[in-house]
Amino acid sequence: MIIIRMTGGLGNQMFQYALYLKLKSMGRDVKFDDKTEYELSNARPIMLWTFGIDYPKASKEEINQMTDGFLYLSHRIRRKIFGRKSLEYQENSCNYDGQILKKKQAYLTGYFQSEKYFKEIEEDVRKAFTFQPCIFENIDAGLKKKIDAYKKEIEESLSVSIHIRRGDYLENSEVYGGNCTAEYYEKAIHIIKDKFPQTVFFVFSNDDAWAQEWCKEQEKVQGLRFVPVTDTPEELGYLDMYLMSKCKHHIIANSSFSWWGAWLNASPDKMVLAPARWFNNQTCYDIYTKEMKKISPEGIIVEDDTK
Q1: DSSP H helical segments within the chain, as ranges?
Q2: Strands 30-33 and 2-5
Q3: Rounded to an integer, what distance in angstroms lies between the CA atom of residue 62 and that of residue 20?
Q4: Under CATH, which architecture does the 139-302 domain have?
Q5: pLDDT digits (tens, 9 = 90+) for 101-146
Q6: Contact 270/216 with Cβ under 8 angstroms?
Q7: pTM above threshold 0.85
Q8: What is the CA radius of gyration of the chain?
Q9: Domains of the chain: which residue ranges?
C-alpha cells in the first residue's frame, strides 16, 4: 500500500490527487492520510469535493503501521533501542522525483508540483478536475449572480486572469517574496497587451480592497479594463479557480492555485506567463509547463530554463 499525506490548500491537494491517479493507473493500492494535518486547528479546508471527488482514506492503524507511529509502550521502547522503522518517503526537492513512482509501499509526503508526475494520464486528470454544480449550493443568491456575471464577461471577452497573492505571501516573504514584483506584472501585462490589444484583465487576489485600488491605477496607466474579482473569501476560493479556468490567457503567481487555474484551461492557444523564480529558498524548474513564458523579478523574459 501507498499512503499520500494530504497537505496544504486546494492547489496542493490537486497535485497530490493527480499523483494518486497516476499511481492508481500503475496498479498501486493508494490511500490518503487526510487526518494528520487536517485535524489541526489552523488547517486549510479540504476542497476536492468541489470536483465531486471521493478518495480512499487510510485508517489511523494503517498510518501508524507505515510510519511506525504506534504509542504503545512496547513500540516506544523498541524505537528507543532500535530506532524508528518508518516507510515515510519525502520528495527530495521541489522538482520531479522519479523515485516516487517506483514506490510500492510507502508513506509519501510532499507537494509533487510537476506535470511530469501525471502528464501521461492528462486526460484522466482533466476529467477528474471538472467543477461540479455543488460549488454553487452553499452561496447566497447575490454572490451566485455576481459569479455568473463574471463568467459571462470572461467568456464573451478576450479575458486574461491575473493572480496576485498577498496576505500569507507577505508574511512569508523570505520564501515567496520578491518573485512576483511590480516589474513582473508590468512586463506580463505588456506582453499580453501587445499581442491582444482588446484584452480585459480579471484580477484575482486574497486582498479585495488592495485589488480594487490596483485595478483603478492600472486602468489609468494601461488604458484597458481591469476587473477585480471580489467577495470570494478563502473558504470559497474554488470559485476563483473556477473563473480563472474560464479565462483565455493567464498571468500567474508563484502559487499552485493559479498554476491549476491556468492548467485547467485546455486551450492549445493559451498564453501563460509565470514568474521565473518560484521560491527564494529552492530552484524549481519542473513546476513549469511547456507553454509557460517565464519573466524575472526585474521584468525580463527568461529563455534559459536553468535560470
Answers
A1: 10-25, 60-67, 73-82, 122-128, 141-156, 168-171, 173-176, 182-195, 208-222, 237-246, 256-263
A2: parallel
A3: 17
A4: 3-Layer(aba) Sandwich (3.40)
A5: 999 999 999 999 999 999 999 999 999 999 999 999 989 999 999 9
A6: no
A7: yes
A8: 21
A9: 2-128, 139-302
